[in-house]
Amino acid sequence: MTHLVTALSLTHFIKSAFLATGFSNEHAETTAQLMVQADISGQDGHGVFRLPQYIKRLQEGGMNPKPDFKILSERVATALIDGDNGIGHLVMRHAADIAVEKARTTGVAWVGARMSNHAGPASLYSRYVLDQGMIGIYVAVGSANHMPPWGGTDMMLSTNPISVAVPSGKNPPIILDMATTVAAYGKVKTLLQSGGTMPEGWMSDKHGNPITDPAKSGDGFLLPIGGPKGYGLALIFGILAGTLNGAAFGSDVTDFNADNKTISNTGQFIIALNIEAFMDIEQFKSQIDKVWEDMKSSAKLPGVDEIRLPGENLARTIEKRTVSGIEIPKPLFASLTQLADELSITRLS
């Protein structure tokens, strides 16, 4: 059973929860909008599903409700910011604004962040840069280690996701949003709450046996995409988003799923690439439309109905959920009702 809610009512509910936990009105509104954008996009493991966890971290001191962002170092096309242990949504929206503004002059800008937190799905920030008429690239160190180095068993790496958003003309933008593991851990958590099972290939125990029961996820680890190639990507992304920013990486990463008090010092970076530094933006979009046509017209394997591009299903989901609403599973709805009562705010309806 699911409950159907509108984006407006969900935004109001999330905003009320953050206001009750010490956020300013502006910060509560911005964070709520970004979280609902995740739900509208079908990225259910990173939207309102995370709200009870965020509130616990705020209540227990693991996250700062009133961050004061600072630029630690800056050059013409780069910046490093300190997120003051604020929620990652606010830190990365701030970082993206800096990157876009710099890229208007420099053509490309790279902004890294330390002392941040979990920020929801990676595509929230690459898409934000996209909306400013640029190509957006976002990478983060995941907020808990769920993967060992290739051939090992000690959890030293996270899902370390990447998202790249590329505008097109008459078609939806091409948006890559992927973890360096076969599945993001958020999907494991949503399956645990809904009572579902994991496909083989998502997780393995330390003896190499597949794990399909989400309740046993603590007994094993996530598997990388492409074997050692996925491990390599996770490692490099962790260095660029974590080590380079003075943020946590490897054994220094705090498991924010199990620890609500320890500061996570999450690292991320955002790149804004100004297309007009290379060619006319409308010409570029026209060429991306041709890429669409080339990919979609490719001969298909037997049993394949359609060739899709990254971001195509996302666009369909956004269109559907904007009109019909967002489905909240019964267990999550019950959790949000309990949260509302604890915070003395109006229940989600």
Keywords summarizing the entry:
alpha+beta
> How many individual helices?
10
Report the span from N to C terminus. Answer: 15 Å
Counted beta strands? 12
Order of helices and strands: EHHHEEHEHEEEHEEEHEHHEH
Notes on the protein architecture:
The structure is a single chain. The chain has 349 residues and is of the alpha+beta class. Helix content is 38%, strand content 17%. The chain has 10 helices and 12 strands. The strands form 3 sheets. The protein has a 7-stranded mixed β-sheet with strand order 2-3-4-11-5-6-7. It has a 3-stranded antiparallel β-sheet with strand order 9-8-10, with no helix packed on it.
Write the layout of secondary structure elements.
Elements: E1 2-5, H1 7-19, H2 25-40, H3 51-59, E2 70-74, E3 78-82, H4 88-106, E4 108-116, H5 123-130, E5 135-140, E6 162-166, E7 174-178, H6 185-194, E8 203-205, E9 210-211, E10 220-222, H7 228-241, E11 266-273, H8 281-296, H9 312-324, E12 326-329, H10 330-343
Parallel strand pairs: 3-4
Antiparallel strand pairs: 1-12, 2-3, 4-11, 5-6, 5-11, 6-7, 8-9, 8-10
